[in-house]
Amino acid sequence: MVTDLNYWSKVLKRIFNFALTLLLLFLLLKLSVFYLPFLIAFVLALFIEPIIKLIMKNFKWTRRASSIFVIAISVLLLFLIIGWGTSTLFKEADKLLSGSDSYFDKTKNLFDNLTDNENILKNLPEEMRNAIENSEDDLIHTFTNWIVNTLSQIKKWLTKVPNLLFMFFFALMALYFMCTDKIYMIDQMEHHLPDPWMKKLTKYIREISKSIGHYLRAEFTLIFISFMVCLTGLSLFKLVGLNVPFPFLSALGIAFVDALPILGSSAVMIPWAVVEALNGDIVLGIAIIILLGMMAVIRNVLEPKLVSKHIGIHPVVTLIAMYTGYKIIGVFGMILGPILLIILKEIYSPMIEKGVIRSLFDKDD
């Protein structure tokens, strides 16, 4: 038996490079929390880079002047949004936490009404009926405690003002240098790195930055618009007397679920409308469905214009990336997971298109 050592050396080299890339992405995911201010600065730089280029082109300003102007306006808007959102979040969270017992009782009464309804339970086996009745209190307690603990952690995190200001200072400084000294940093990389490395690195950085920037801008814009439409609708519902005590928290939760692949805002709003209708508030149930329809129409109109180039990743794979990121570093990993997935796709796009295993063991170069 003749062994083709040249072939197997190429296979082992491909496997090693692929494994090394996965290891580096894993380390990047772990270090992202440690270097969070710089990661935030990099993401913000991707957002505002097109605006900086637009101002440089139209007003003939230097990169430094354009960057300072755009950063100043962005920081001002960010402070206004964060200030308003934090204030509203504190008010609604305090109200929800102080009235958690009453909401527990309301939820329990709703479960009691459902489980006492013979039309719902009559076709279920006796063991299942007993299990539902016995686990009702545990389920409600667990869900209520989870909500209360989550809101308490959010409030606790928001009260760490000095730490947040410290992180904000480093993020702002990093953003300033990334925007104003972009050309200088590229020149330094070209000076210190070998030409073959620089060519590949420049190509990957350009494509990855373009894909990530496009993905983040499109998703953020769609989610923000959905959040504002939802918040406006729920606030109007509360204004006209419908039972929507926490429009900001509700809109925030719906926007978070709307960011998840496959699920979307309907995964929250449809069950909410059904529960309200079963609880006797049919008007609110219908209003929620109408609001969901408006959000869906707006999203379907805007999405083709914003997402002009599909990133080519199936929602299930994106969901796996989000779950992996969550298991490694927590909630922040749900945002970073898809970004690292885009990086992996851009680096190994020919391999992925051909088939990963097939490419690893292909005899051709």
Topology (SSEs and partners):
Layout: H1 5-34, H2 36-59, H3 63-98, H4 100-115, H5 118-121, H6 126-158, H7 161-180, H8 182-192, H9 195-239, H10 247-258, H11 266-278, H12 282-306, H13 315-329, H14 332-347, H15 349-354, H16 356-360
Could you characterize the architecture of this molecule?
There is one protein chain. The chain has 365 residues and is mainly α. It has a domain at 222-310. 85% of the residues lie in helices and 0% in strands. The chain is built from 16 helices and no strands. It starts with a helix and ends in a 5-residue tail after the last helix. The mean pLDDT is 79.
Provide key terms for this protein:
365 residues; mainly alpha; globular
Can you summarize this structure?
With 365 residues, this protein is mainly α.
Total helices: the number is 16
Strands, count: 0
- Described by the principal axes of the CA atoms, the overall outline is globular
Low-confidence stretches: none
